[in-house]
UniProtKB/TrEMBL annotation, chain A:
It comes from Apolygus lucorum (Small green plant bug). This is Mitochondrial ribosomal protein S21. GO terms for cellular component: ribonucleoprotein complex; ribosome. One of its GO terms (biological process) is translation. One of its GO terms (molecular function) is structural constituent of ribosome. It holds the Pfam family Ribosomal_S21. Belongs to the bacterial ribosomal protein bS21 family. The keyword Protein transport does not apply. Keywords: Ribonucleoprotein, Ribosomal protein. The keyword Ribosomal protein applies. NCBIfam families: S21p.
From TrEMBL, chain B:
Keywords: Ribonucleoprotein, Ribosomal protein. This is Ribosomal protein S11. It comes from the Eukaryota. One of its GO terms (biological process) is translation. Pfam families: Ribosomal_S11 (PF00411). InterPro entries: Ribosomal_uS11, Ribosomal_uS11_sf. GO terms for molecular function: structural constituent of ribosome. It comes from Apolygus lucorum (Small green plant bug). Belongs to the universal ribosomal protein uS11 family. PANTHER family: 40S RIBOSOMAL PROTEIN S14/30S RIBOSOMAL PROTEIN S11 (PTHR11759). One of its GO terms (cellular component) is ribosome.
Length: 89, 205
């Protein structure tokens, strides 16, 4: 699959000032965020349909919960208020 | 801020005593910072400080765009293959392939033009046997001996291409660096498919 892309353009990070660790972390972070590692691990063994269903349902619930919780935290932590200093004269 | 505010207040009150019609304008002149007083101001603040919208996270897009914008010079462009490293264009720099699996790590250097393997070293060759092959220590020591061999053969700049996930993934890269090889880029070449042929059945533990 990966070979269909242009080699050394896709999924590539250049090392800046000999800082290999930074580059490796950046590459791993992007791949992890995009779910490429997850997909790789998931396809090592066959995932039975009931497992797939359960996983997808769980992911949905988790995403909804996280979104709601993020919104709540944003609301509590908001700083851009109509009255900048409520309670002051 | 509070001092200024008080000053403004006294001025307002004195103005009010004098005539009463100057109050608003005179107090406004004393603000040192931007006054957030009305709905319009608030709307302006929101409009000017609006965070760039990358879409809803987790739904098709992920929050990678901001990372890419921050470190744009770390990602290759269409001109990267012609970039020179010690007089050698990027596309002609030898490739160091690291094949990582759960049980072993294999490192090779291939010729960029013909694709032939020039040097090969694995944790098994290094002397680690059985489960010890699949450890980060084994991968690191393999990478160090491999790196010194490569330096002796005259390879200084290499592009690293990693394939697979396992304990040796990071430590092999670190070992190459410790051996003194100059790594100019890191590439991931893990084969990942979203519609693969049916994999083997799951292990029963």
């Amino acid at each position: 699959m990966a070979n269909r892309h242009v080699q050394f353009i896709s999924r590539t990070v250049l090392v800046r000032n000999g800082n290999v660790d930074e580059a490796a972390r950046l590459l791993n972070r992007i791949l992890g965020r995009e779910g490429i590692f997850d997909q790789f691990r998931r396809t090592r063994y066959y995932e039975k349909p009931f497992q797939q269903r359960r996983r997808v349902n769980y992911e949905k619930c988790k995403a909804i919960y996280n979104e709601d919780m993020d919104r709540k935290i944003q609301f509590v932590m908001r700083k851009n208020r109509l009255e900048p200093f409520p309670g002051c004269i | 801020m509070s001092v200024l505010f008080k000053l403004g207040f006294s001025l307002v009150s004195s103005a009010a005593r004098n005539g009463g019609f100057l109050a608003c304008s005179s107090s406004r002149a004393l603000h040192a910072s931007a006054a957030c007083r009305s709905k319009d101001d608030r709307r302006n603040i929101i409009l000017t400080n609006r965070r760039r919208d990358d879409g809803t996270e987790g739904e098709g897009t992920v929050n990678v765009d901001s990372v890419i914008q921050l470190r744009s010079e770390m990602f290759p462009t269409e001109r990267t293959p012609d970039m020179l490293f010690n007089g050698v264009p990027f596309s002609k720099v030898p490739i160091c392939n690291i094949r990582v699996s759960k049980n072993n790590t294999i490192i090779t250097i291939t010729d960029p033009v013909s694709g032939e393997a020039r040097l090969l070293r694995s944790c098994g060759i290094e002397g680690f046997k059985n489960t010890r092959k699949g450890t980060n220590v084994a991968a690191q020591s393999t990478a160090i001996t491999f790196g010194t061999n490569a330096l002796n053969k005259g390879y200084t700049n290499i592009r690293v291409r990693v394939r697979g996930l396992g304990p040796g993934r990071m430590s092999a890269i670190k070992g190459l660096q410790m051996a003194g090889l100059n790594i100019i880029s890191l590439t991931d070449n893990t084969p990942v498919s979203w519609n693969p042929p049916r994999p083997r059945k799951a292990r029963r533990l």
